[in-house]
Amino acid sequence: MTRARRPSPQTIAVLDALAAKASDWSHGYDLCRALGLKAGTVYPILIRLAERGFLETTWEQEVAQGRPPRHLYRLSPAGAEHLRSLPRAATLGPRPTPRPRLAQGGASIAGAPA
């Protein structure tokens, strides 16, 4: 028996971004830039969603000379239905600004990771 897992906030963000464009095709790179996520996060999500039938995929037809064709993605009807069924509390929001670490006595440590 497979366990149904809740999608990550990043997965929901990818689905939301594709839903916002409705029937338009999107490149993975464009999604990375729009969402502020790295390719190592976005592409595995796209592959997983496509395997589950939530995305339609195709190869770019018109390719600029000297550049390989790119994969294109858009939300499938099943993906749109899946997105509507998801709880909306798990969205990817703005990342909080890290607070400076304090040394003993309350002075901040310059260059210390937060």
Task: Characterize the structure shown.
By secondary structure, this protein is an alpha+beta fold. It has a domain at 9-85: Arc Repressor Mutant, subunit A, CATH 1.10.10.10. The chain is built from four helices and three strands. It has a three-stranded antiparallel beta sheet. Helix 2 (28-35) packs across helix 3. It is globular, with a radius of gyration of 19 Å.
Mind sketching the topology for me?
Layout: H1 9-20, E1 26-27, H2 28-35, H3 39-51, E2 55-59, E3 71-75, H4 77-85
Antiparallel strand pairs: 1-3, 2-3
Helix pairs in contact: 2-3
- Report the end-to-end length measured between terminal Cα atoms: 42 Å
Strand order of the largest sheet: 1-3-2
Discrete helix count = 4
Percent in strands: 5-15%
Order of helices and strands: HEHHEEH
Q: Kindly report the CATH topology of the domain at 9-85.
A: Arc Repressor Mutant, subunit A
The CATH architecture assignment of the domain at 9-85 turns out to be Orthogonal Bundle
In short:
The protein is α+β, with helices and mostly antiparallel strands.
List keywords for this structure.
114 residues, alpha+beta, Arc Repressor Mutant, subunit A, three-stranded antiparallel β-sheet, globular
